[in-house]
């Protein structure tokens, strides 16, 4: 099997640089291009050099079209508007699209789903093996315990993160909601302040903390009468997300059109 040729979107960002490094270290995957916003001061820079792996001869560009015929797909950790625009472009070019961006609106989700009718898109709030296993466990625990056990999702990230709750927190909440057979959008509680009244039985609560350089920490808490179960994941390095995204790219090559998740990639869909 030939190497999977991948373009990294958002190559100048923290995750973009980590992805370039992860691809350089991975077997069976090669970097086919590195793109960033047209206004980025990194346009023209060698992507390997700025990622700490040494010069690789692949400069950062803003033109996906010029790279499309030399690639199989795109890995994208950018911002919602950029990811939606990229989904339309990857669909037109016939490239698979791995999306690790979070913070999408309902309209954004619909646009990505439309693009997935033409290409394989793997989209997840978190690409790490550990978090997706945690989500599978949260679903199982939620299905096992009744509404006597309140579900709360707590997350903490670095002070540069721009969306809340995190995509991972929502991933865990959605998993728990599926376990309970409820609609998360109708049963979620986000941000308590002031005189809120008693907690509504069956709701899933979210709380977000921001500070320092925390890569990502998540708790799925099941609080019942006189006992509490906590499922916890603490990320220590962004490389775990990059390696998961590279794994998703290898999996996505040759897949039929559709909207997939890391649960599909890792075989945890029916756990």
From TrEMBL:
<feature type="domain" description="Dihydrodipicolinate reductase C-terminal">
    <location>
        <begin position="130"/>
        <end position="266"/>
    </location>
</feature>
<comment type="pathway">
    <text>Amino-acid biosynthesis; L-lysine biosynthesis via DAP pathway; (S)-tetrahydrodipicolinate from L-aspartate: step 4/4.</text>
</comment>
<keyword id="KW-0520">NAD</keyword>
<feature type="binding site">
    <location>
        <begin position="10"/>
        <end position="15"/>
    </location>
    <ligand>
        <name>NAD(+)</name>
    </ligand>
</feature>
<keyword id="KW-0028">Amino-acid biosynthesis</keyword>
<dbReference type="Pfam" id="PF01113">
    <property type="entry name" value="DapB_N"/>
</dbReference>
<dbReference type="InterPro" id="IPR036291">
    <property type="entry name" value="NAD(P)-bd_dom_sf"/>
</dbReference>
<feature type="active site" description="Proton donor">
    <location>
        <position position="161"/>
    </location>
</feature>
<protein>
    <recommendedName>
        <fullName>4-hydroxy-tetrahydrodipicolinate reductase</fullName>
        <ecNumber>1.17.1.8</ecNumber>
    </recommendedName>
</protein>
<dbReference type="InterPro" id="IPR022663">
    <property type="entry name" value="DapB_C"/>
</dbReference>
<comment type="similarity">
    <text>Belongs to the DapB family.</text>
</comment>
<feature type="binding site">
    <location>
        <position position="158"/>
    </location>
    <ligand>
        <name>(S)-2,3,4,5-tetrahydrodipicolinate</name>
    </ligand>
</feature>
<comment type="subunit">
    <text>Homotetramer.</text>
</comment>
<feature type="binding site">
    <location>
        <position position="46"/>
    </location>
    <ligand>
        <name>NAD(+)</name>
    </ligand>
</feature>
<dbReference type="GO" id="GO:0008839">
    <property type="term" value="F:4-hydroxy-tetrahydrodipicolinate reductase"/>
</dbReference>
<dbReference type="Pfam" id="PF05173">
    <property type="entry name" value="DapB_C"/>
</dbReference>
<comment type="function">
    <text>Catalyzes the conversion of 4-hydroxy-tetrahydrodipicolinate (HTPA) to tetrahydrodipicolinate.</text>
</comment>
<feature type="binding site">
    <location>
        <begin position="124"/>
        <end position="127"/>
    </location>
    <ligand>
        <name>NAD(+)</name>
    </ligand>
</feature>
<keyword id="KW-0457">Lysine biosynthesis</keyword>
<keyword id="KW-0521">NADP</keyword>
<feature type="binding site">
    <location>
        <begin position="167"/>
        <end position="168"/>
    </location>
    <ligand>
        <name>(S)-2,3,4,5-tetrahydrodipicolinate</name>
    </ligand>
</feature>
<feature type="binding site">
    <location>
        <begin position="100"/>
        <end position="102"/>
    </location>
    <ligand>
        <name>NAD(+)</name>
    </ligand>
</feature>
<keyword id="KW-0963">Cytoplasm</keyword>
<feature type="active site" description="Proton donor/acceptor">
    <location>
        <position position="157"/>
    </location>
</feature>
<dbReference type="InterPro" id="IPR022664">
    <property type="entry name" value="DapB_N_CS"/>
</dbReference>
<feature type="domain" description="Dihydrodipicolinate reductase N-terminal">
    <location>
        <begin position="4"/>
        <end position="127"/>
    </location>
</feature>
<dbReference type="InterPro" id="IPR000846">
    <property type="entry name" value="DapB_N"/>
</dbReference>
<keyword id="KW-0220">Diaminopimelate biosynthesis</keyword>
<dbReference type="InterPro" id="IPR023940">
    <property type="entry name" value="DHDPR_bac"/>
</dbReference>
<keyword id="KW-0560">Oxidoreductase</keyword>
């Amino acid at each position: 099997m030939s190497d999977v040729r991948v373009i990294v979107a958002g190559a100048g960002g923290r995750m973009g640089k980590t992805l370039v490094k992860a691809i350089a270290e991975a077997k069976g995957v090669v970097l086919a291009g590195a793109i960033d916003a047209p206004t980025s001061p990194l346009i023209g820079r060698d992507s390997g050099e700025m990622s700490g792996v040494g010069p690789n001869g692949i400069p950062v560009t803003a033109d996906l079209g010029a790279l499309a015929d030399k690639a199989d797909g795109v890995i994208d950790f950018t911002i919602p508007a950029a990811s939606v625009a990229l989904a339309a472009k990857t669909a037109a070019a016939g490239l698979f699209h791995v999306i690790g961006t979070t913070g999408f609106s309902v309209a954004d989700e619909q646009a990505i789903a439309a693009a997935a009718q033409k290409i394989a898109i793997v989209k997840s709030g978190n690409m790490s093996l550990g978090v997706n296993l945690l989500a599978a466990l949260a679903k199982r625990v939620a299905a096992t315990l009744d509404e006597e056990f309140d579900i709360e999702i707590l997350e903490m990230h670095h002070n540069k993160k721009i969306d809340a709750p995190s995509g991972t927190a929502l991933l865990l909440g959605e998993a728990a909601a599926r376990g309970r057979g409820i609609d998360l959008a109708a049963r979620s509680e986000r941000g308590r302040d002031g005189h809120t009244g008693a907690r509504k039985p069956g709701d899933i609560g979210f709380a977000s903390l921001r500070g320092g350089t925390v890569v990502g920490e998540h708790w799925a808490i099941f609080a019942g009468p006189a006992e509490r179960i906590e499922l916890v994941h603490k990320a220590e390095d962004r490389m775990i997300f990059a390696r998961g995204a590279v794994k998703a790219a290898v999996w996505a090559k040759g897949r039929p059109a559709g909207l997939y998740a890391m649960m599909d990639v890792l075989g945890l869909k029916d756990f």
